[in-house]
Specification:
- This protein has helices at residues 13-24, 36-50, 64-72, 102-130, 151-170, 190-194, 199-205, 214-225, and strands spanning 4-7, 28-33, 54-58, 83-86, 133-138, 176-183, 235-238.
- The protein is α/β, with parallel strands linked by helices.
- It has a single domain, classed as 3-Layer(aba) Sandwich (Rossmann fold), CATH 3.40.50.
- The relative contact order is 0.14.
- Belongs to the short-chain dehydrogenases/reductases (SDR) family.
């Protein structure tokens, strides 16, 4: 048994890709998300293809009580978690701040910031008890460079950046690694969610260049989590070759 990985937001995008990547390498998985049917389908697929054990936990990371209850429910070997991938997150809308929907703001901050905190707080005692472990927080290039109409989303990912640095310091005495990975443009469900199901707008984001894929990011997560015990990548920004940062993207043939 290589170990156990807990991935939030595992039913799509980076989370699903990470689950598949770790499964191929023989790791057992705890997968979380809000959609039970997707969790069940992913569990069936991974166990059939890779012969690993998968435990699905259906809850919303925004719900503090549900999050704590889900982690508390773990028993036996499932409590021996080696890596937490804090992946659950989203962007909603792309509007000037004075035109922003406050419900969208709440959803982004509750998911991207508070949800990450709730899961981490519930899980850290298990890592401390073992004197080892690794927390990987999925951020964004939006944490490094604010762009027009990105306001609250950028703020939420800047918080992930700061929290990752704080976790790294606070958990230093316990042998727990903390890594923040900040992907740039990646073609997942991200833009479709941001534009609330408008496929045309979502597709336009990626025209004229080759974006990252979920698999690209999953490979990086896997690499960071399998380095020697004495090596920790603290902060990593990854973009497509055509993207310099959150703002500058070179597009052709559009």
């Amino acid at each position: 048994m290589k170990g156990t990985i807990l991935i939030t937001g595992a039913t799509s995008g980076f989370g699903e890709a990470c689950a598949m990547r770790f499964a191929r390498e023989g790791y057992h998985l705890i997968i979380t998300g809000r959609r039970q049917e997707r969790l069940d389908a992913l569990k069936e697929q991974l166990e059939k293809e890779s012969g690993i054990q998968v435990l699905p936990l259906c809850f919303d990371v925004r719900d503090k009580a549900a999050t704590q209850a889900a982690i508390t429910s773990l028993t036996g070997a499932w409590r021996e978690i080696d890596v937490l991938v804090n992946n659950a997150g989203l962007a909603l809308s792309l509007t000037p701040i004075d035109e922003g929907d406050t419900d969208d703001w709440d959803t982004m901050l509750d998911t991207n910031v508070k949800g990450l905190l709730y899961v981490s707080k519930a899980l850290i005692p298990l890592l401390k008890a073992r004197g080892k472990g690794h927390i990987i927080n999925i951020g964004s290039t939006a944490a490094k460079h604010v762009y027009a109409k990105g306001n609250v989303y950028c703020a939420s990912k800047s918080a992930v950046d700061a929290l990752s640095q704080g976790m790294r310091i606070d958990l230093l005495p316990y042998g727990i690694k903390v890594t923040a990975i900040h992907p740039g443009a990646a073609e997942t469900e991200f833009s479709l969610v941001r534009f609330k199901g408008d496929q045309g707008k979502a597709d336009d984001v990626y025209k004229g260049f080759t974006p990252l894929s979920g698999d690209d990011v999953a490979d990086i997560v896997f690499y960071c989590s399998t380095l020697p015990k004495h090596v920790c990548i603290n902060d990593l920004v990854v973009t497509p070759t055509a993207q310099a940062n959150a703002y500058y993207v070179h597009k052709t043939n559009i």
